[in-house]
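During the no-cost extension, the postdoctoral fellow (Dr. R.K.) reprocessed legacy sequence entries with the updated structure-token encoder. One reprocessed record is reproduced below for audit purposes.
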Amino acid sequence: DIDLKGVIQGVGGQDVATFCEQGVTDFCNLMTFNSGGTLLTVSNSLLNLSSLKTNGVDMTASYDGTLGADKFSVRVNATYTNRLTTTIPTPSGVPTIQENAGSVGQNGFPHWKGNLQLSYTHGQLTLSPNVRFVGPGRLSTIFREEATATSPIEIARAQNRIGAYYVVGLSASFDVLPDEGFQVCGAVDNLLNREPKIVAGTF
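Re-encoded structure tokens follow.
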């Protein structure tokens, strides 16, 4: 577990607007309106957020082997973020608790992230495919997805969720003149040409 006091960071433009609407007046001071009341800018300024608590697990595994004269390797890195809780002070003295674990919005961390790297060398040729993975999550952890006895739904679950995403890459190298160290290499970051997930950021 990590428990930090006196954390200084921004909460994100959307959260600034949301906290202001919820009556946290300190965040309203970060918003600028014109004479007609239209919102012009939101300042995602650094704030003293009082505390940040997080815990999770980092996992790494690797294996190197041979197939005859050929060489190969497998590397797996994965991160599970169980909790990422920020405490935001308010004028009333009752802090706002914001949980960002499982969020894929600004300042959020999906529960799962991972990277798989493979490498295979045959003679002078090396091929290295890789897969980067980001787990599913919520766009915002602030808005209610379910109604309570006293409060209505603030956002539909389907509108606040984004699915898992992965990208396949491939790099290759060829030792043209091994003794002289002359090598030709290239890489493709998005081999399958997958469209990225669109997540709104600061506005």
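The helical segments are 13-21, 25-28. The mean pLDDT is 84. The remaining legacy entries will be reprocessed before the final report is submitted.
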